[in-house]
Amino acid sequence: MTPTARIRLRRACTAVAAAGVLLAPAAAGHAYGSPDAARPTAAAPSPDPGDRDFPELTPAVAAKLDAAIRNTLREAKVPGVIVGLWAPGKGSYVKTFGVADKETGARMRTDFYTRIGSQTKTFTVTALLRLVDQGKAGLDDPIGRYVSGVPNGDRITLRELAGMRSGLFNYSEDDAFDKALTTGGTRPFTPRQLLDYSFRHPVNFAPNAEFEYSNTNLVLLGLVIEKVTGRPLQEVIKEQVIEPAGLHHTLFPTSAAFPSPHAQGYTDQSASGDIVNATDWNPSWAWAAGAMISDLEDLRSWAKTLATGTLLKPATQAQRLKTTSVGIPGAGYGLGLFDVQGWIGHNGSLPGYESLGVYLPEERATLVVILNTDVLHDGQEPSTLFGEAVTSIVTPDHVYPGHKPTAPRHD
Predict the structure, then answer these.
(1) Which residues contact 233 (CB under 8 A, 6 or more apart)?
(2) Are strands 353-360 and 331-333 parallel, antiparallel or unpaired?
(3) How far is Cα 52 from Cα 238, in angstroms, rounded to an integer?
(4) Which of 42, 57, 306, 380 lies deepest, with the highest CB count within 10 Å?
(5) For residue 238, what are the domain limits?
(6) Residue 205 region by backbone torsions, left for phi larger than 0, else alpha for psi between -120 and 50, else beta
(7) DSSP state, 284?
């Protein structure tokens, strides 16, 4: 296992602050070359499907966005990206740039399915909160009531798990897990196997003492949901979240199956540190923390649903939106979501893919970014770079993530 690969695995299924507001150790070595000169990176416009409330942005603003996104694509050496922005009073912008397949040169398309990584956390926690609203679980219940063998299980609450304040070791930082994933990306993992990687380590701090992003927390919440309902997590999320939210292209896979159409995904989280195609890697290793699949339009809809809390009781949504500091000005974490400079939502990263889905209540604006790589650029997540490029132009009073990363990350 190379140091590069180990560093990179630690941010898989990463969070907004962990991925964008906070700085990752710079990954050495491999990155993409410039896009093939025979395949220009001009924007491929895609009509906004019948949304009369959002006419297109003015040509001048659209041209600025085109230039900023092309520049980010080139500088970060990203194969392809889909960008969707909807801002009342300003307009909409839905375009693709670059390639979906580096071998064939096929272009990115707005109807692609994509692996959404840690945006899955927003669905898992929403399912939990729906059960809380139904009186079937309590946020201040100890995890030990539902899952045995958890370090500090009699003290860590479901609220602390959802808020990333449990102190439990993040299984995706375990060396043995790194090796198992990077040498066998197609192998399946069970939730209990993932917890075993975590529980072999001591806890990092007492419950609620600090914020520390950990995929272990969401695996435990997934098991709580299964314990309470007596049903598989994917069925509960479909029934309690996906269907009530009116999403039609969002699913929780139980294998490496990936609906078509989709882009090829490229990662350097390999045993050698070389860039490889991770399209068909099995996302079971991320399970409740990052296994889900969606598309542009569903992520657009979900960002608003998540931020406005239409699936939850108002009091529950208020608790969800109560954030605690992640150590960076303007960024806080609530229950399975971030508030970063007023943008509420989450991003996601797992080998081959990144996404960002956020909603700005103050301007009723939505931003979705989808790309087919997770290779860092100068220590930063490429999805964050695109978010910054877009918001700097369209919402200058709410730039995501607000400033350049300057501190060590906590993922």
Answers:
(1) 124, 127, 222, 225, 226, 252, 287, 288
(2) unpaired
(3) 29
(4) 306
(5) 3-394
(6) beta
(7) G
Residues paired with 324 in a beta bridge: 333
| Among 179, 158, 181, residue whose Cα is nearest residue 168 | 158
Say how many domains are in the chain.
1
- 8 A C-beta contact, residue 346 and residue 122: yes
Domain for residue 116, yes or no? yes
- Report the SS3 class of residue 85: strand
Residue 293 forms beta bridges with which residues?
115, 251
- Secondary structure of residue 396 in the 3-state scheme: coil
What is d(CA 276, CA 182) in angstroms, rounded to the nearest whole number? 10
**Peptide bond before residue 283 is cis, with ω within 30 degrees of 0:** no
Q: What is the Cβ-side half-sphere exposure of residue 44, based on CA atoms within 13 angstroms?
A: 17
Q: 3-state SS of the chain: helix, strand, coil percent to 5?
A: 35, 20, 45
Residues 162/172, Cβ–Cβ less than 8 Å: no
Is residue 405, in this structure, part of any structural domain at all? Answer: no
**Distance from the Cα of residue 128 to its chain's centroid:** 18
- HSE (CB half, 13 Å, CA atoms) of 182? 28
Pairing of strands 331-333, 276-277: unpaired
396's tokens: 């200058």
Burial readout 90-128 (b: 16 or more C-beta within 10 A, e: otherwise): bbbbbbbbbbbbbeeeeebbbebbbbbbbbbbbbbbbbb
The DSSP code for 385 is: H
Q: Is residue 408 part of a domain?
A: no
Nearest to 98 by CA among 117, 116, 72: 72
What pLDDT, on the 0 to 100 scale, is given for residue 397?
Answer: 95
Q: What is the CATH number of the domain that holds 239?
A: 3.40.710.10
Helix orientation angle between 59-76 and 382-394, rounded to the nearest 10 degrees: 160
Q: Is the bond preceding residue 261 a cis peptide, omega within 30 degrees?
A: yes
Residue numbers in the chain where pLDDT is lower than 70: 1-53, 403-411
C-alpha atoms less than 13 angstroms from C-alpha of 404 in its C-beta half-sphere:
4
